Amino acid sequence: MGSVLLELGDTNPNLVVVGADTTESLSLSPFGKKFPDRLFNVGIAEQNMIGVSAGLALYGKTVFCGTYAVFLERAIDQIRNTIGYCKLNVKIIGAHTGVSVGPDGGSHQAIEDIAIMRSIPNMKVVVPSDSYSTRALVREMASTDGPFYLRLIRASVPDLYLDKKISVGKANVLTEGSDIAIIACGIMVHEALKAADRLRKEGISARVIDCHTIKPLDAETIIKAANDTNRIITAEDHNMFGGLGSAVAELLSQKRPTRMEMIAVKDVFGESGKDTEVMAKYGITEKEIFDKAKEMMK
Fold it and tell me: How far apart, in whole angstroms, are the C-alpha atoms of residue 88 and residue 18?
């Protein structure tokens, strides 16, 4: 995250960053060292962070602001009324999301942030799956006017993308398949790919789609997957209500009713533990995707 902001800061003198005492954790500090007059750390004051960001945007700045996603929820009033309602050019970064945050426990594991942010008019919601896609999507966000919510994970994951084009609003088909489609976002894209490999060994052809943009949703790619496979699984490190699964279900119920299952946190708060252990406990791993796909094929 920090490296792409440094790159953008070199080319866009109007780009500024606002933090709320988590600039080190979000790798925003290097931006401030290079551009000391363009980083503002307001301290543990998330509502003020959004207000300052709004003021800077009104004066023509491209603003990136962020902290842990659970702390952003303290400022939903300001995000709704000053950023969303006014269509301001502010890119909000929510870090440490989902139960995969691990050791920090349920108080720090945001599992409702997608639901909140995608319900705000004018807000685009982006959930990258690796560092490459994060950089590509951030570049596009910086050059696109209007509010964005960028959801970042804490766990280290390998890069999936090296040369694929990644664009806001356009999902990426990572593997082709004709029996079932697995639509995932964030860390769950990696779990979906592992599940698809296991399914392939069982003779089941699974299409894996990285739906990195939750809003606006790529209706064309999702409806095509439904037409081609007649079976959809969504996978996300988020509550089962209001996230990727809900967005896909809303679309398909209106455009192409399809048998569908959701792999998500089942409306409970998480707890402390290693990221892999916590994900396994709450049923959001390749195993659950694999088992659900096998069940749907019967």
Answer: 15
